[in-house]
Amino acid sequence: MKKRIGIFYKKENPNVISSAVLNVDREMIEILGISIKENDIKFSFKDNKITIQKGSFENPIKSKDKNIIEKNIKLNFTKVYKDKDYLITRLNIPSAVIKAMNLTSEDNEVEVIEVDDKIVIERSKKEMGKVFSIKVNKGGIGKTFLTVQLGYGLAMQDKKVLLLTSDSQNNILDYTLSDDEVDKIDFKKDLRYCVMNDKVETVKLRTNLYFIPTKSSLFTDRFLEKLPEFIKKMQEEYDYILIDSIPTMKIDSTFVACSDKVIIPMFCDNPTLKGAINVIKETGVEKIHSIIVNKYRPTATQKGILKDIKEAIEGTDIVFPEPIKELSQVETLARKGKTIWESRAKILAAAQESLLDVILKL
């Protein structure tokens, strides 16, 4: 059965847990075989699982490792109905256990499993988040712009989204924050810091939208070895991870290998078309999620290339929305640190529709 652990934080320090409690209902009481008079409980935590059982440890383990805990607990019961033998109680859970299980007041669902006369409590298994690389073998196409627009579009669908980049210029910030806000960011706790120290330090860009900046574009072999495991860990926390990929970097191969799918932005010109074809050859057509034409101008040449692309991908599962036209309003929004979703300009409606076509199929 699924339950939620109530997690409460101190008013003076919202990062510190003041208490965490799990309601122990009648069904759990019956499994454990406890009562008002026989209310001793063995509480243990190991391998990221809580185990509770009737009785007491003779010699509870005393470990400095906060991932291993044994303690004896007496449960205090409350009688719900005076005329009925219906009891409930609350199990207080140490804050160290909450942290180890990576639970928060927003993400507090657990699985309660009966194992003989024991109850095992573990974090509910979430569906792993999806990873997409926005990639093309040419610069200046609008990878960062599209990464931000897709990311915030997903966030507005109530999805938790993480943006990553290997570019130390961190242009994602320019598309989302003001200069004053960027100046306050601690770039020391960047992607390399997070991966090497197994810690997560993010910049909140919008509701549900987060970013880990990159201080340096120099990555060691050890970093590249640990990166896939870090991304996998992030998939447990985020619904989507979007990667603003830099094709000249060695890290790009690791990012693509970790991605479920690749999104290709492009112009309707021959150099970009060749770059897109190279990406398809490198990754395989089955790994391409979508191709998005950016800064489109309906000239005879661009119309011809657009037609060629449509014919080339016909019969595949590749998403190919209407091209995003070249608009000065997009540049104006970027200078203000705003996304196209934060504008009511009618001229941007077509661009919003095109990106929504991609978002709904991610």
Keywords:
17 strands; 2 domains; seven-stranded mixed beta sheet; 25% strand; 362 residues; single chain; Rossmann fold; alpha/beta; elongated; six-stranded antiparallel beta sheet
What does this structure look like?
With about 350 residues, the chain is α/β, with parallel strands linked by helices. It has 2 domains: about 1-125, no CATH class; about 130-360, Rossmann fold. Helices cover about 30% and strands about 25% of the residues. It contains 12 helices and 17 strands. It has helices at about 25-30, 95-100, 145-155, 170-175, 180-185, 190-195, 220-235, 250-260, 270-285, 300-315, 330-335, 350-360, and strands at about 1-5, 5-10, 15-25, 40-45, 50-55, 70-75, 75-80, 85-90, 110-115, 120-125, 130-135, 160-165, 205, 210, 240-245, 260-265, 290-295. The strands form 3 sheets. The protein has a 7-stranded mixed sheet with strand order 13-14-12-15-11-16-17, with helices on both faces. A 6-stranded antiparallel sheet has the order 1-9-10-5-4-6. A hairpin with a 7-residue loop joins β7 and β8 (about 85-90). α3 (about 145-155) crosses α12 and α6 (about 190-195) crosses α7. The longest helix is centred in the middle third of the chain and has 17 residues, at about 220-235. The two termini are about 30 Å apart. Mean pLDDT is about 90; it is low at about 80-85.
